[in-house]
Amino acid sequence: MRIRLVIVLVFAALWTAGYLFPRVALNASGESAPQVKQKKRPARRSGQTATGARAAKDYSSFSHRSAKHRSLACDSCHTAPTANWLKASAFPDVADYPGHASCVGCHRTEFFKGARPNICSICHTKVSPRDGARFAFDKPGAPSQFNAVFPHDKHQDVIAAAGFDRGFRAAHAGQENAAQKYNNCAICHQTNDETPKPAGGFPDNFEPPAGTFKASPAGHASCFNCHWKNQEPTHNDCAGCHDLSQTDVLQLAAPSRKSLKFTHTREQHIAECTTCHINITRASSLRGLKPDVPITSCATCHKTSTDAAIATIETEFEKRNRDPAFVCAKCHTSEVGRLATPASHRRLFSE
Ligand code: HEC
Ligand code: HEC
Ligand code: HEC
Ligand code: HEC
Ligand code: HEC
Ligand code: HEC
Ligand code: HEC
Ligand code: HEC
Ligand code: HEC
Question: In the structure, what pLDDT confidence band is assigned to residue 290 with cuts at 50, 70 and 90?
């Protein structure tokens, strides 16, 4: 009983943390090497069972990328809603692993192999014929095999027209300026009140103040009210919103920023989101989005200043012109501020 509670609490903590963590695809040069499962396998004849290859396989982790699994419909394994949704979520949700029936048809041997079959540990915290306790779904902290699909462009008008805030966001109601709708972005992106703590810290040991970051959805709360039965992709069509990635997608503790020192909660920075995020409303995909905030949206206030104590784009620009080793530190931490001044910045002074 006690141990159960501890497990539940640990998961609750990880889970909440996970809620605010964005996901970023690892590239080949990422320091923590992605575990890409792309083993080259000899072609297998159809009719051969999974069991036939068991000696060479590791059954303790599940891959969506293997040929056989990829050939199956998502909802041949996943059900929506899962049986536990009432306990796990405020709305009909996908909150549990696929059940035994979705595997045993092909993996009977692995399920009944020895006293502690490896395969159980994909879903269960303890391998036991009597204990059904499972990890949270998805596994807290584990990399995802999918990229999120959210075409911002297609949703601008629909969400405005729906004019909804159906109460599931009531808990956050006070957080944003109620007088403004912010293009309804806040339905899905609230201010993150706590500064996340990435392992290894932020660059230059800079501590972003609370409220620096906006969070992104980590679950279905802001999708399923529309995408349940009528609007495609519907709840069973997992692949409509989860795009299988060839590299594992890590959950980062904090968003990866160019301008780490920018904070969303400074009063002069609170404005209609699209005054700065000028590209997102036209973006059909989340790929190659960055930067979606051009420096021109900062220039109205930060290009020059009569207050000599305040660093501006102009003062940093001039310092850099005099001393090529000067590191720009107003908006950037040093891994960006030490690089060559980009054309976008120089253009502000070329007219
Ligand atoms: C053969 C059964 C099976 C099929 C088919 C399947 N899944 Fe899964 N899926 C699983 C299992 C098992 C897990 C848990 C894996 C784990 O936690 O290690 C999972 C986990 C997930 C997760 C959460 C973990 C993550 O990587 O983000 C997502 C999202 C997901 N599946 C989406 C899909 C989509 C989309 C499809 C269809 C393209 C699909 N699944 C098809 C069995 C399946
Ligand atoms: C239609 C048959 C089929 C179903 C259903 C199926 N599998 Fe598999 N599975 C296979 C085959 C075939 C392989 C061998 C991998 C390959 O070579 O493609 C495999 C491989 C695996 C492996 C080894 C690692 C990997 O992915 O290559 C694991 C673990 C696994 N399956 C778990 C599961 C679980 C858990 C379920 C149920 C949620 C499941 N499978 C459902 C056919 C199936
Ligand atoms: C793909 C994920 C997955 C794998 C692999 C898996 N289980 Fe489960 N298991 C579940 C789910 C989901 C439930 C809850 C099923 C339900 O309530 O209908 C469950 C329930 C159970 C229960 C509770 C009793 C029951 O039937 O409700 C036990 C015990 C159990 N599993 C043991 C095992 C063992 C032992 C293995 C390995 C041989 C295993 N499971 C493999 C997902 C999995
Ligand atoms: C219905 C929900 C929804 C609405 C409304 C919405 N977004 Fe998003 N947004 C998302 C999702 C989902 C992602 C992808 C998060 C991920 O990759 O895990 C995202 C990603 C982003 C990102 C990239 C985040 C990053 O860390 O790279 C930005 C910036 C963004 N949205 C800004 C906006 C702005 C500005 C608006 C209003 C014009 C808006 N969004 C409206 C759901 C929404
Ligand atoms: C004054 C300009 C400005 C306004 C107004 C603004 N943002 Fe941002 N936003 C930024 C900048 C700058 C970044 C960081 C981009 C980078 O450095 O890569 C950012 C980043 C983000 C991110 C990615 C996560 C993060 O914090 O790094 C999201 C999501 C986001 N903004 C949503 C919003 C939403 C929703 C609103 C409206 C409520 C909004 N923004 C208003 C400038 C702005
Ligand atoms: C207010 C209702 C509403 C909400 C909330 C909503 N959507 Fe949509 N979504 C729509 C409508 C309507 C369309 C069709 C728009 C069109 O085709 O122009 C759509 C289209 C899509 C498409 C594109 C389908 C295609 O054919 O290209 C995807 C993917 C999608 N939504 C994902 C999401 C995700 C992910 C979320 C949650 C983060 C979400 N949506 C939240 C109403 C909504
Ligand atoms: C309408 C779009 C949409 C559909 C359909 C959809 N998802 Fe998601 N799902 C999302 C978004 C957006 C997120 C948050 C961003 C992310 O984690 O990639 C998410 C997150 C998740 C997570 C992370 C854990 C959590 O908190 O919920 C899992 C697991 C998951 N989805 C599994 C599934 C499975 C399995 C299916 C099919 C039964 C499915 N999803 C269908 C949009 C969708
Ligand atoms: C007022 C804030 C601000 C100041 C001051 C500033 N930048 Fe930037 N910088 C940005 C923004 C916003 C972006 C992203 C959008 C763009 O490039 O227009 C950016 C982008 C960059 C990039 C591109 C990063 C990448 O990965 O694409 C570099 C390099 C850079 N800045 C260097 C500098 C240097 C060098 C200075 C000093 C001469 C400087 N910045 C001063 C706000 C600032
Ligand atoms: C409406 C005016 C306005 C706009 C637009 C604006 N800022 Fe600011 N910002 C201010 C003021 C006022 C301050 C406080 C004085 C100072 O430090 O320059 C400030 C301060 C800052 C600081 C210092 C940290 C802090 O909050 O005290 C950073 C970094 C910053 N802004 C970055 C940006 C970036 C990047 C953009 C564009 C994406 C931007 N600002 C757009 C008015 C603005």
Answer: low
Are 256 and 24 a contacting pair, CB within 8 Å? yes
- b/e per residue, 201-218, with b = 16+ CB within 10 A? ebeeeeebeebbbbbbbb
- Residue 350 pLDDT grade (very low, low, confident, very high; cuts 50, 70, 90): confident
C-alpha 74 – ligand 7 centre gap (Å): 12
Look up residue 303 and give its two tokens. Answer: 């290009």
Say if residues 211 and 192 touch (Cβ distance below 8 Å).
yes
- CA-wise closest residue to 98 among 236, 220, 224: 236
Ligand 9 nearest atom to the CA of residue 298, by list position: 37
- What is the C-alpha to C-alpha distance for residues 108 and 105, in angstroms, rounded to an integer? 6
Closest CA to ligand 3's atom 26: 132
Residue 73: count other Cβ atoms within 10 Å of its Cβ: 11
CA of 223 to the centre of ligand 1 (A): 18
